[in-house]
Protein backbone atom coordinates (compact mmCIF):
# COMPACT_ATOMS: atom_id res chain seq x y z
CA UNK A 1 0.00 0.00 0.00
CA UNK A 2 2.94 2.34 0.47
CA UNK A 3 3.28 5.10 -2.05
CA UNK A 4 6.34 4.53 -4.20
CA UNK A 5 9.53 6.32 -3.20
CA UNK A 6 10.41 8.49 -6.11
CA UNK A 7 13.89 9.22 -4.87
CA UNK A 8 13.32 12.81 -3.91
CA UNK A 9 13.02 11.81 -0.23
CA UNK A 10 12.87 14.73 2.15
CA UNK A 11 15.79 16.61 0.64
CA UNK A 12 14.38 18.73 -2.15
CA UNK A 13 10.92 19.91 -2.99
CA UNK A 14 8.45 17.02 -3.33
CA UNK A 15 7.69 15.95 -6.89
CA UNK A 16 4.50 17.55 -8.19
CA UNK A 17 2.06 16.31 -10.82
CA UNK A 18 -0.77 18.07 -12.62
CA UNK A 19 -4.26 16.60 -12.91
CA UNK A 20 -6.81 18.05 -15.34
CA UNK A 21 -10.52 17.75 -14.52
CA UNK A 22 -13.27 17.15 -17.11
CA UNK A 23 -13.98 20.89 -17.16
CA UNK A 24 -10.31 21.65 -17.85
CA UNK A 25 -9.27 22.91 -14.43
CA UNK A 26 -5.65 22.10 -13.58
CA UNK A 27 -4.74 20.81 -10.11
CA UNK A 28 -1.12 20.63 -9.03
CA UNK A 29 -0.52 18.12 -6.22
CA UNK A 30 2.32 16.15 -4.72
CA UNK A 31 2.93 12.89 -6.56
CA UNK A 32 2.69 11.03 -3.25
CA UNK A 33 -0.88 12.28 -2.74
CA UNK A 34 -2.01 11.53 -6.31
CA UNK A 35 -0.45 8.07 -6.03
CA UNK A 36 -3.14 7.06 -3.54
CA UNK A 37 -5.05 6.44 -6.75
CA UNK A 38 -4.11 3.01 -8.12
CA UNK A 39 -5.13 4.28 -11.55
CA UNK A 40 -2.75 7.23 -11.44
CA UNK A 41 0.07 5.45 -9.66
CA UNK A 42 1.42 3.69 -12.76
CA UNK A 43 1.33 6.83 -14.89
CA UNK A 44 3.14 8.75 -12.17
CA UNK A 45 5.72 5.97 -11.73
CA UNK A 46 6.37 6.20 -15.47
CA UNK A 47 7.14 9.87 -14.99
CA UNK A 48 3.85 11.17 -16.38
CA UNK A 49 1.88 14.15 -15.16
CA UNK A 50 4.85 16.45 -14.66
CA UNK A 51 5.65 19.75 -16.31
CA UNK A 52 3.10 21.18 -18.70
CA UNK A 53 1.57 17.81 -19.65
CA UNK A 54 -0.81 16.99 -16.88
CA UNK A 55 -2.98 13.87 -16.61
CA UNK A 56 -6.49 14.36 -18.02
CA UNK A 57 -9.35 12.92 -15.94
CA UNK A 58 -12.35 13.14 -18.29
CA UNK A 59 -14.72 11.46 -15.80
CA UNK A 60 -14.09 13.74 -12.83
CA UNK A 61 -15.27 17.36 -12.66
CA UNK A 62 -13.33 20.05 -10.81
CA UNK A 63 -15.62 20.24 -7.74
CA UNK A 64 -15.30 16.48 -7.21
CA UNK A 65 -11.59 16.39 -7.99
CA UNK A 66 -10.79 19.10 -5.47
CA UNK A 67 -12.65 17.08 -2.83
CA UNK A 68 -10.82 13.89 -3.84
CA UNK A 69 -7.47 15.65 -3.58
CA UNK A 70 -8.35 17.07 -0.18
CA UNK A 71 -8.72 13.45 0.97
CA UNK A 72 -5.52 12.30 -0.75
CA UNK A 73 -3.40 15.12 0.67
CA UNK A 74 -4.62 14.39 4.19
CA UNK A 75 -4.07 10.64 3.87
CA UNK A 76 -0.80 10.66 1.90
CA UNK A 77 1.60 10.87 4.87
CA UNK A 78 -0.05 7.90 6.60
CA UNK A 79 -0.09 5.90 3.35
CA UNK A 80 3.60 6.66 2.80
CA UNK A 81 4.28 5.02 6.18
CA UNK A 82 2.82 1.78 4.84
CA UNK A 83 -0.65 2.21 6.27
CA UNK A 84 0.85 3.89 9.30
CA UNK A 85 1.49 0.93 11.58
CA UNK A 86 3.52 3.16 13.86
CA UNK A 87 1.19 6.13 13.73
CA UNK A 88 0.34 7.48 17.12
CA UNK A 89 -3.15 7.24 18.52
CA UNK A 90 -3.39 11.01 18.15
CA UNK A 91 -2.62 10.79 14.41
CA UNK A 92 -5.18 8.07 13.93
CA UNK A 93 -7.81 9.96 15.90
CA UNK A 94 -7.09 13.05 13.81
CA UNK A 95 -7.54 11.12 10.55
CA UNK A 96 -10.75 9.60 11.86
CA UNK A 97 -12.07 13.02 12.81
CA UNK A 98 -11.13 14.29 9.35
CA UNK A 99 -12.88 11.34 7.66
CA UNK A 100 -16.08 11.85 9.64
CA UNK A 101 -16.25 15.50 8.71
CA UNK A 102 -15.13 14.86 5.16
CA UNK A 103 -18.22 12.77 4.30
CA UNK A 104 -20.57 15.13 6.10
CA UNK A 105 -21.51 16.73 2.79
CA UNK A 106 -24.31 17.18 0.34
CA UNK A 107 -25.61 13.89 -1.06
CA UNK A 108 -24.97 14.71 -4.71
CA UNK A 109 -21.32 15.48 -3.88
CA UNK A 110 -21.13 12.21 -2.00
CA UNK A 111 -22.41 10.25 -5.01
CA UNK A 112 -19.98 11.98 -7.38
CA UNK A 113 -17.23 11.25 -4.89
CA UNK A 114 -17.93 7.52 -4.71
CA UNK A 115 -17.84 7.30 -8.51
CA UNK A 116 -14.60 9.25 -8.70
CA UNK A 117 -13.09 7.06 -5.98
CA UNK A 118 -13.98 3.99 -8.06
CA UNK A 119 -12.68 5.48 -11.29
CA UNK A 120 -9.42 6.45 -9.65
CA UNK A 121 -9.29 3.32 -7.46
CA UNK A 122 -8.65 5.06 -4.17
CA UNK A 123 -9.38 2.23 -1.80
CA UNK A 124 -9.69 4.18 1.44
CA UNK A 125 -11.98 6.78 -0.07
CA UNK A 126 -14.14 4.12 -1.75
CA UNK A 127 -14.78 2.38 1.52
CA UNK A 128 -15.23 5.63 3.46
CA UNK A 129 -17.97 6.89 1.14
CA UNK A 130 -19.59 3.48 0.70
CA UNK A 131 -19.87 3.22 4.48
CA UNK A 132 -21.46 6.66 4.64
CA UNK A 133 -24.03 5.84 1.94
CA UNK A 134 -24.74 2.49 3.63
CA UNK A 135 -25.41 4.32 6.91
CA UNK A 136 -27.72 6.70 5.06
CA UNK A 137 -29.90 3.96 3.61
CA UNK A 138 -29.77 1.49 6.51
CA UNK A 139 -33.20 0.99 8.03
CA UNK A 140 -34.98 2.78 5.21
CA UNK A 141 -37.81 1.27 3.22
CA UNK A 142 -37.21 0.49 -0.46
CA UNK A 143 -39.33 3.50 -1.39
CA UNK A 144 -37.32 5.80 0.89
CA UNK A 145 -34.14 4.50 -0.72
CA UNK A 146 -35.44 5.31 -4.17
CA UNK A 147 -36.11 8.84 -2.92
CA UNK A 148 -32.72 9.09 -1.20
CA UNK A 149 -30.81 7.90 -4.25
CA UNK A 150 -33.05 9.70 -6.72
CA UNK A 151 -34.17 6.53 -8.52
CA UNK A 152 -37.40 6.65 -10.50
CA UNK A 153 -40.34 4.66 -9.14
CA UNK A 154 -40.54 1.16 -10.63
CA UNK A 155 -42.76 0.53 -13.61
CA UNK A 156 -45.79 -1.70 -12.96
CA UNK A 157 -43.95 -4.63 -14.61
CA UNK A 158 -40.89 -4.07 -12.44
CA UNK A 159 -43.05 -3.88 -9.33
CA UNK A 160 -44.85 -7.09 -10.30
CA UNK A 161 -41.54 -8.89 -10.77
CA UNK A 162 -40.31 -7.78 -7.34
CA UNK A 163 -43.61 -8.69 -5.69
CA UNK A 164 -43.49 -12.16 -7.25
CA UNK A 165 -39.97 -12.64 -5.95
CA UNK A 166 -40.86 -11.58 -2.42
CA UNK A 167 -43.94 -13.78 -2.47
CA UNK A 168 -41.86 -16.80 -3.35
CA UNK A 169 -38.86 -16.20 -1.13
CA UNK A 170 -40.36 -13.94 1.49
CA UNK A 171 -40.57 -16.67 4.11
CA UNK A 172 -36.82 -16.45 4.63
CA UNK A 173 -36.64 -12.70 4.47
CA UNK A 174 -39.32 -10.14 4.89
CA UNK B 1 -23.61 20.72 -24.73
CA UNK B 2 -25.99 18.29 -23.09
CA UNK B 3 -25.65 17.91 -19.37
CA UNK B 4 -24.14 14.55 -18.50
CA UNK B 5 -26.66 12.30 -16.73
CA UNK B 6 -24.30 11.84 -13.77
CA UNK B 7 -24.69 15.51 -12.99
CA UNK B 8 -28.43 15.38 -12.62
CA UNK B 9 -28.62 12.18 -10.65
CA UNK B 10 -25.23 10.68 -9.87
CA UNK B 11 -26.69 7.77 -7.89
CA UNK B 12 -28.58 6.54 -10.96
CA UNK B 13 -25.29 5.92 -12.74
CA UNK B 14 -23.75 3.83 -9.96
CA UNK B 15 -22.08 0.77 -11.41
CA UNK B 16 -22.78 -2.69 -10.02
CA UNK B 17 -19.40 -2.53 -8.29
CA UNK B 18 -20.40 0.59 -6.39
CA UNK B 19 -23.80 -0.79 -5.39
CA UNK B 20 -22.20 -4.01 -4.13
CA UNK B 21 -19.61 -1.97 -2.25
CA UNK B 22 -22.42 -0.11 -0.47
CA UNK B 23 -24.63 -3.16 0.12
CA UNK B 24 -21.74 -5.19 1.50
CA UNK B 25 -21.65 -2.78 4.43
CA UNK B 26 -25.26 -3.40 5.41
CA UNK B 27 -26.75 -6.11 7.60
CA UNK B 28 -28.21 -9.05 5.70
CA UNK B 29 -31.72 -8.12 6.78
CA UNK B 30 -31.47 -4.74 5.03
CA UNK B 31 -29.95 -6.24 1.92
CA UNK B 32 -32.83 -8.68 1.57
CA UNK B 33 -35.36 -5.90 1.98
CA UNK B 34 -33.58 -3.83 -0.68
CA UNK B 35 -34.47 -6.35 -3.37
CA UNK B 36 -37.56 -4.17 -3.74
CA UNK B 37 -35.65 -0.99 -4.55
CA UNK B 38 -35.43 -1.67 -8.27
CA UNK B 39 -35.25 -4.51 -10.74
CA UNK B 40 -31.51 -4.06 -11.14
CA UNK B 41 -31.00 -4.25 -7.38
CA UNK B 42 -33.20 -7.36 -7.24
CA UNK B 43 -31.14 -9.06 -9.94
CA UNK B 44 -27.90 -7.95 -8.36
CA UNK B 45 -28.82 -9.21 -4.90
CA UNK B 46 -30.63 -12.44 -5.77
CA UNK B 47 -28.77 -13.75 -8.80
CA UNK B 48 -25.46 -12.02 -8.52
CA UNK B 49 -22.47 -13.75 -10.05
CA UNK B 50 -20.18 -15.57 -7.63
CA UNK B 51 -17.64 -12.78 -7.30
CA UNK B 52 -20.38 -10.43 -6.09
CA UNK B 53 -22.22 -13.06 -4.11
CA UNK B 54 -19.29 -13.57 -1.81
CA UNK B 55 -19.14 -9.88 -1.03
CA UNK B 56 -22.76 -9.57 0.03
CA UNK B 57 -23.76 -10.54 3.54
CA UNK B 58 -25.67 -13.79 3.05
CA UNK B 59 -26.11 -15.00 6.54
CA UNK B 60 -24.44 -14.98 9.90
CA UNK B 61 -21.13 -16.69 10.31
CA UNK B 62 -21.85 -17.94 13.73
CA UNK B 63 -22.22 -20.83 16.04
CA UNK B 64 -25.33 -21.92 17.86
CA UNK B 65 -25.30 -24.20 20.83
CA UNK B 66 -27.58 -25.37 23.56
CA UNK B 67 -26.85 -25.74 27.23
CA UNK B 68 -28.93 -28.31 29.08
CA UNK B 69 -30.10 -28.14 32.70
CA UNK B 70 -31.62 -25.65 32.43
CA UNK B 71 -32.09 -25.58 28.67
CA UNK B 72 -30.82 -22.39 27.15
CA UNK B 73 -29.80 -21.53 23.59
CA UNK B 74 -26.72 -19.49 22.85
CA UNK B 75 -25.26 -17.75 19.90
CA UNK B 76 -21.57 -17.09 19.37
CA UNK B 77 -20.46 -14.59 16.77
CA UNK B 78 -17.21 -16.03 15.47
CA UNK B 79 -16.26 -13.47 12.86
CA UNK B 80 -15.00 -10.86 15.30
CA UNK B 81 -15.74 -8.09 12.80
CA UNK B 82 -18.72 -5.85 12.34
CA UNK B 83 -21.15 -8.62 11.41
CA UNK B 84 -24.53 -7.76 12.84
CA UNK B 85 -25.15 -9.71 15.95
CA UNK B 86 -28.45 -11.13 17.01
CA UNK B 87 -30.10 -11.52 20.32
CA UNK B 88 -28.68 -14.70 21.84
CA UNK B 89 -31.98 -15.41 23.54
CA UNK B 90 -33.29 -16.13 20.07
CA UNK B 91 -36.48 -14.05 20.31
CA UNK B 92 -37.78 -15.20 16.94
CA UNK B 93 -38.04 -18.75 18.21
CA UNK B 94 -39.28 -17.85 21.66
CA UNK B 95 -42.70 -17.14 20.18
CA UNK B 96 -42.91 -20.88 19.61
CA UNK B 97 -42.63 -21.59 23.30
CA UNK B 98 -40.21 -21.52 26.16
CA UNK B 99 -36.63 -22.43 25.31
CA UNK B 100 -37.00 -25.71 27.18
CA UNK B 101 -39.54 -26.86 24.59
CA UNK B 102 -37.28 -26.02 21.64
CA UNK B 103 -34.25 -27.97 20.49
CA UNK B 104 -31.74 -27.55 17.72
CA UNK B 105 -31.62 -30.51 15.34
CA UNK B 106 -29.53 -29.53 12.37
CA UNK B 107 -28.21 -26.60 10.39
CA UNK B 108 -27.40 -26.14 6.73
CA UNK B 109 -26.05 -23.16 4.81
CA UNK B 110 -27.24 -20.57 7.32
CA UNK B 111 -30.61 -22.06 8.21
CA UNK B 112 -31.43 -23.83 11.45
CA UNK B 113 -33.76 -26.77 11.92
CA UNK B 114 -35.39 -26.95 15.34
CA UNK B 115 -38.12 -28.98 16.95
CA UNK B 116 -40.69 -27.47 19.23
CA UNK B 117 -43.52 -28.83 21.28
CA UNK B 118 -46.60 -26.82 20.50
CA UNK B 119 -48.31 -25.14 23.40
CA UNK B 120 -51.54 -26.65 24.57
CA UNK B 121 -52.69 -29.71 26.45
CA UNK B 122 -50.92 -33.03 25.83
CA UNK B 123 -52.72 -35.86 24.08
CA UNK B 124 -53.91 -39.01 25.82
CA UNK B 125 -50.36 -40.38 25.93
CA UNK B 126 -49.08 -37.18 27.54
CA UNK B 127 -47.32 -36.15 24.36
CA UNK B 128 -47.75 -32.71 22.97
CA UNK B 129 -47.63 -32.44 19.16
CA UNK B 130 -44.12 -31.99 17.82
CA UNK B 131 -43.49 -29.44 15.10
CA UNK B 132 -40.44 -28.58 13.09
CA UNK B 133 -39.29 -25.01 12.69
CA UNK B 134 -36.79 -23.82 10.10
CA UNK B 135 -35.34 -20.46 10.93
CA UNK B 136 -33.03 -18.00 9.25
CA UNK B 137 -31.28 -16.51 12.30
CA UNK B 138 -29.90 -13.64 10.23
CA UNK B 139 -33.35 -12.36 9.40
CA UNK B 140 -35.16 -13.96 12.37
CA UNK B 141 -37.77 -15.36 10.01
CA UNK B 142 -39.05 -18.88 10.36
CA UNK B 143 -41.57 -21.41 9.11
CA UNK B 144 -43.23 -24.10 11.19
CA UNK B 145 -44.58 -27.36 9.82
CA UNK B 146 -45.94 -30.45 11.54
CA UNK B 147 -44.14 -33.70 12.06
CA UNK B 148 -45.49 -36.75 10.24
CA UNK B 149 -47.55 -39.39 11.98
CA UNK B 150 -45.74 -42.70 12.18
CA UNK B 151 -47.29 -46.15 12.37
CA UNK B 152 -46.87 -48.45 15.34
CA UNK B 153 -43.43 -49.97 15.39
CA UNK B 154 -41.93 -47.17 13.36
CA UNK B 155 -39.39 -44.66 14.57
CA UNK B 156 -37.81 -41.62 12.95
CA UNK B 157 -34.59 -40.93 14.73
CA UNK B 158 -32.56 -38.79 12.41
CA UNK B 159 -33.66 -35.52 10.83
CA UNK B 160 -31.58 -33.62 8.30
CA UNK B 161 -31.94 -30.14 6.85
CA UNK B 162 -30.85 -29.64 3.24
CA UNK B 163 -30.44 -26.15 1.86
CA UNK B 164 -28.16 -24.59 -0.73
CA UNK B 165 -28.83 -20.91 -1.27
CA UNK B 166 -26.79 -20.90 -4.46
CA UNK B 167 -29.18 -23.40 -6.06
CA UNK B 168 -32.61 -22.65 -4.64
CA UNK B 169 -34.31 -20.65 -1.93
CA UNK B 170 -36.23 -23.77 -0.97
CA UNK B 171 -35.11 -26.27 1.61
CA UNK B 172 -35.81 -29.94 2.24
CA UNK B 173 -36.02 -31.85 5.49
CA UNK B 174 -35.26 -35.56 5.50
CA UNK B 175 -36.37 -38.12 8.06
CA UNK B 176 -35.39 -41.80 8.01
CA UNK B 177 -38.11 -44.14 9.20
CA UNK B 178 -36.90 -47.31 10.85
CA UNK B 179 -38.71 -50.50 11.69
CA UNK B 180 -38.08 -50.78 15.41
CA UNK B 181 -38.26 -54.58 15.43
CA UNK B 182 -35.91 -55.16 12.54
CA UNK B 183 -33.76 -52.04 12.98
CA UNK B 184 -33.87 -51.49 9.25
CA UNK B 185 -34.86 -48.61 7.05
CA UNK B 186 -38.40 -48.87 5.74
CA UNK B 187 -38.95 -45.47 4.15
CA UNK B 188 -37.58 -41.98 3.76
CA UNK B 189 -39.70 -38.90 4.39
CA UNK B 190 -38.91 -35.79 2.39
CA UNK B 191 -40.40 -32.41 3.24
CA UNK B 192 -40.20 -29.72 0.58
CA UNK B 193 -40.70 -26.06 1.50
CA UNK B 194 -41.76 -25.46 -2.09
CA UNK B 195 -44.78 -27.76 -1.87
CA UNK B 196 -45.16 -27.41 1.90
CA UNK B 197 -45.78 -31.13 2.27
CA UNK B 198 -44.11 -34.42 3.15
CA UNK B 199 -43.50 -37.17 0.60
CA UNK B 200 -43.00 -40.73 1.77
CA UNK B 201 -40.65 -42.82 -0.34
CA UNK B 202 -40.79 -46.55 0.33
CA UNK B 203 -37.59 -48.52 0.15
CA UNK B 204 -39.08 -51.28 -1.94
CA UNK B 205 -36.37 -53.76 -0.92
CA UNK B 206 -38.11 -55.86 1.68
CA UNK B 207 -35.99 -58.90 0.86
CA UNK B 208 -32.78 -57.02 1.41
CA UNK B 209 -33.19 -55.36 4.78
CA UNK B 210 -30.93 -52.37 5.16
CA UNK B 211 -29.63 -52.16 8.67
CA UNK B 212 -29.62 -48.47 9.33
CA UNK B 213 -27.41 -46.77 11.82
CA UNK B 214 -26.67 -43.33 10.40
CA UNK B 215 -23.58 -41.48 11.44
CA UNK B 216 -22.44 -38.55 9.40
CA UNK B 217 -23.98 -36.88 6.37
CA UNK B 218 -23.14 -34.29 3.78
CA UNK B 219 -25.45 -32.29 1.54
CA UNK B 220 -23.84 -31.54 -1.80
CA UNK B 221 -25.19 -30.49 -5.21
CA UNK B 222 -28.77 -31.32 -4.30
CA UNK B 223 -28.01 -34.77 -2.91
CA UNK B 224 -27.85 -35.84 0.71
CA UNK B 225 -25.22 -38.51 1.28
CA UNK B 226 -25.49 -40.42 4.51
CA UNK B 227 -22.93 -42.84 5.85
CA UNK B 228 -25.01 -45.59 7.43
CA UNK B 229 -23.28 -48.63 8.78
CA UNK B 230 -21.25 -49.97 5.86
CA UNK B 231 -23.16 -48.23 3.10
CA UNK B 232 -23.71 -44.80 1.68
CA UNK B 233 -27.32 -43.79 1.28
CA UNK B 234 -27.94 -41.03 -1.27
CA UNK B 235 -31.23 -39.12 -1.29
CA UNK B 236 -32.21 -37.20 -4.42
CA UNK B 237 -34.63 -34.49 -3.35
CA UNK B 238 -35.65 -33.46 -6.83
CA UNK B 239 -36.64 -36.95 -7.88
CA UNK B 240 -37.90 -38.01 -4.44
CA UNK B 241 -35.79 -41.15 -4.56
CA UNK B 242 -32.82 -42.74 -2.86
CA UNK B 243 -30.19 -45.34 -3.54
CA UNK B 244 -27.53 -47.17 -1.59
CA UNK B 245 -23.98 -48.05 -2.43
CA UNK B 246 -21.27 -50.08 -0.81
TrEMBL record, chain A:
One of its GO terms (biological process) is protein ubiquitination. It comes from the Eukaryota. Coiled coil: none annotated. The keyword NAD does not apply. Pfam families: Skp1, Skp1_POZ. The keyword Iron does not apply. Pathway: Protein modification; protein ubiquitination. Residues 16-75 form the SKP1 component POZ domain. InterPro entries: SKP1 (IPR016897), SKP1-like (IPR001232), SKP1-like_dim_sf (IPR036296), SKP1/BTB/POZ_sf (IPR011333), Skp1_comp_dimer (IPR016072), Skp1_comp_POZ (IPR016073). Keywords: Ubl conjugation pathway. Residues 124-163 form the SKP1 component dimerisation domain. Involved in ubiquitination and subsequent proteasomal degradation of target proteins. Together with CUL1, RBX1 and a F-box protein, it forms a SCF E3 ubiquitin ligase complex. The functional specificity of this complex depends on the type of F-box protein. In the SCF complex, it serves as an adapter that links the F-box protein to CUL1. Belongs to the SKP1 family. Part of a SCF (SKP1-cullin-F-box) protein ligase complex. This is SKP1-like protein. The gene is ga14711.
Automatic annotation (TrEMBL), chain B:
InterPro entries: At3g26010-like (IPR055290), F-box-assoc_dom_typ1 (IPR006527), F-box-like_dom_sf (IPR036047), F-box_dom (IPR001810). This is F-box domain-containing protein. It comes from the Eukaryota. Residues 14-54 form the F-box domain. It comes from Eleusine coracana subsp. coracana. It holds the Pfam family FBA_1. CDD domains: F-box_AtFBW1-like. Gene3D superfamilies: 1.20.1280.50. Coiled coil: none annotated.
Amino acid sequence: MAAPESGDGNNGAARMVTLISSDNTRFEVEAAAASLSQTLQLTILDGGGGGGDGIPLPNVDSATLSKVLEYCIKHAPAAANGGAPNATAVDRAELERFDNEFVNIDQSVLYSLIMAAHNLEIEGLQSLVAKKVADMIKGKSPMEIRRTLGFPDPTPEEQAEMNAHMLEYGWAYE
Amino acid sequence: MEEPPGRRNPAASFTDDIIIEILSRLPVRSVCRFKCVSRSWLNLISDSDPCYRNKLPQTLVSFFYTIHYPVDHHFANITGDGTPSIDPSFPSLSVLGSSSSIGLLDSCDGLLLCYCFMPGPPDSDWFRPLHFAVCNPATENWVVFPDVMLSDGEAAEVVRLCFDRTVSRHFHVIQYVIDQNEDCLTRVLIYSSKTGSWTSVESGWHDDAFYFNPGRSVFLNGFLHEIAYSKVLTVDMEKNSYTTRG
